[in-house]
Amino acid sequence: MTTKEEISRRRTFGIISHPDAGKTTLTEKLLLFGGAIQTAGAVKSNKITKSATSDFMEIERQRGISVATSVMAFDYNGYRVNLLDTPGHKDFAEDTYRTLTAVDSVILVIDCVKGVEMQTEKLMEVCRMRNTPVIVFINKMDRDGQDPFDLLDELESKLNIKVRPLSWPISMGKTFQGVYNLYSKNLHLFRPNKTAVEKDVIQISDLQDPLFDEYTGKYAEQCRKDVELIEGVYEPFNRQQYLDGTLAPVFFGSAVNNFGVKELLEAFLEIAPPPKEKESNARQIQPMEEKFSGFVFKIHANLDPRHRDRIAFIRICSGKLVRNNNFHHVRLGKKLKFNTPVNFMAQEKNVIEEAYAGDVVGLYDTGNFKIGDTLTEGEDFMFKGIPNFSPELFREVINKDPMKAKQLEKGLMQLTEEGVAQLFIQQPGNRKIIGTVGELQFEVIQHRLLHEYGATCDYHSMSLYKACWVSSTNQKELERFCNYKASSIARDKDDNIVFLADTRFTLNSIMEIYKDLNFSFISEHNSKSFQR
Ligand code: G4P
Question: One fold for both 9-74+86-271 and 278-376?
Fold first, then answer.
C-alpha cells in the first residue's frame, strides 16, 4: 500500500460521555468487532492490570477511575481505526480536552434514561469550538428511558447542534423491539445478549410491508407514525454538515447487549472523515504531505516504576514516521531519533517500523517533550490549537522540606509539563500556584512529588474564580494594568501574563476599565499569542 492509501484508510476518533453512560462498554464492543480483543471484560481488566503495576495508578485504582487515556487501533473492512479513549471523570477533563485535539471526529454516548448530562455539555463545547464532527449514540435502550423525540430536542437545545436520527427505536425498555435504520432502510431486531447481530437484520424498504407488522407487532403503527414525523421534521442527512460539525447523526442501541454497535461502526466508517489538515503557525499542514510532522498531546509518566520512563503520545499529522529516522524537535531546535516507537493494539504495545498520518504513536522520552511540542523532518513550524483552559481550583504550593527545594521545583516543572495541572508563578517570592480542574489532581501531585521526586508539599487554598490570560498590542496599558493589579498577576510556564481573578465581578469590572486588553480563559501550549 502506498503512503497515501495508508493515510486515507485511517479513521481516528474518540468516544466521549458523561461517566456511566456506557463509554467503556461501547469501546469494548467496538474492539470485539475489530478483533482487537477476544473477550468481553478485557478493557476493564486492562485498567486494573495497569494500576497494579504503578503507584500512581494505585491512586486511581482505589478510586475506581481510569485516568489513562489509552489508544486502541484495529482494522475493520479495510479501514485502520484508531480509537482514543478519554477519561470520563470530570477531574481529568483537561486530559480529555487535549485528547480531542488529536482526533478527527467523536462518538458521543448518551444514556437514554439520563439524557444530556453536565460532562456531556462541557465536552461538546470543546468539540463545537473545534468543529469536530460528532455522531451521537443513544445507549441503554433496553431500559425505560426518555421519549426519543424529547431526547433529540434536548440534544439540540443543550448541545447547540442540529441532529438527524439515522436509526429509530421501536419501543424501549422491556418491550424494546429493535431499531429501524432510516439510512439503509432495514429492521434490526433486538435480541438481548446476542453477539451475532447480523442475522437479525431484515431488509424492509417500505414500512407498510406486512412483514414489518409481523416482526414488531403492535409497535409497528407507532413506528410508522414516528418515521413519518421524522421525515417531515428533519431534513435529509447531509454529510457535509456533519463534516463541518454542525449536524450530528443519531443512532440508538444498547452497548451492553451488543445491539446497534456494528451498525454504528459501519455508519461511522462510511461517513467519518479521514485525517484532516491541521493549522500551524506557518501554514496549513496537509496529511498527504510527504514529510512527517506531528505533535505531542499527552505525556504519561512512570508507566513502568522500575524505569521511571515517560511516554509521549504523538498524533501524526502528515507523512509517515519511520523508526530510527532523524526528527526535528522544533521548540528545542534539536535532532532526535527514536528506536522504539510503539503503537497500541488494545492491551498490547508493539514496537513499529512506521506509522502514518492519523496514527498515534508512543515515543519513549527522557524529558525532551512537553505537551504541544511539534516534531517535523526539519521544517520550523508549531502546530496550533492545543489548548490550556483556565483551571477551576487553585492552591499555593508550600514546601514542607527546605532541603528538598530543588526536587520540588523539578517535580513541579515536570508534572505540569505532563499536563497533570497548570503552574503559575507569582512575584515577589516565586510563589507557586497550581491550578486544576478537579480535587483529585492535588492529591496526585502530592503523591507523585513524594514517590518520584522525594519532595513533600502542602497546599494553601486560594479562593479564585478563574485564571485569565491577558494580552494587548497596547504595551503601556498592559504595564499599567500589571502594576495596578500586581497582587493578582502571575506568569504561566511560557511566561505569559495571567490575571488571577477572584470573582467574576472583579473580572467584568476590569474588562470594562481596560478596554485595550484581551482577556482569555484559553491559551495555547507553547504560544505567546492568542485571541480573546
Ligand atoms: P462509562 O465508561 O461511560 O463510565 O460506562 P460503562 O461502560 O462502565 O457503563 C456503566 C454501566 O452501564 C455499567 O454497569 C454497564 O454495564 C452499563 N451499561 C452499558 N451499556 C448498557 C446498556 O446498553 N444497557 C444497560 N442496561 N446497561 C448498560 P455497571 O453495573 O456499572 O457495571 P458492570 O458491573 O455491568 O460492568
Answer: yes
pLDDT at 426 over 80: yes
Span 214-223, average pLDDT:
87
55 lines ligand 1 (CB under 6 A): no
Q: Ligand 1 pocket, 181 CB below 6 A?
A: no
Q: Is the shortest distance between the CB of 169 and ligand 1 below 6 Å?
A: no
Q: What is the pLDDT of residues 54-94, one digit of tens each?
A: 444 455 444 333 334 467 888 999 999 999 877 766 667 77
Asked whether the predicted pLDDT for residue 133 surpasses 90, the reply is yes
337 CA distance to ligand 1 middle (Å): 43
Distance 256 CA to ligand 1 centre (A): 7
65 lines ligand 1 (CB under 6 A): no
- What whole-number percentage of the chain has pLDDT above 70? 87
Full strand arrangement of the beta sheet holding 71-76: 71-76, 79-84, 10-17, 105-111, 134-139, 247-252, 162-165
- The domain defined by 278-376 folds into Rossmann fold (3.40.50)
| Angle between helical axes of 148-159 and 220-233 (0-180°, round to 10) | 30
pLDDT in tens, 94-131: 778 888 999 999 999 999 999 999 888 888 988 988 89
pLDDT at 69: 41
Q: Rounded to an integer, what distance in angstroms lies between the CA atom of residue 350 and that of residue 269?
A: 25
CATH code given to domain 9-74+86-271 = 3.40.50.300
Q: CB within 8 A of 81, min separation 6: which ones?
A: 11, 13, 30, 34, 73, 74, 75, 269
Percent of the chain whose predicted confidence (pLDDT) is above 90: 53
Q: What is the CATH code of the structural domain delimited by 387-524? A: 3.30.70.3280
For residue 342, the CA-to-ligand 1 centroid distance in Å is 31
Q: Does the structure show a pLDDT above 50 at 293?
A: yes
CB 377 within 8 A of CB 319: yes
Instruction: State the Rg of the chain over Cα.
Output: 25
Q: Ligand 1 center to residue 388 CA distance, Å?
A: 31
Contact between 27 and 43 under an 8 Å Cβ cutoff? The reply is yes
- Nearest protein CA to atom 19 of ligand 1, as residue: 22
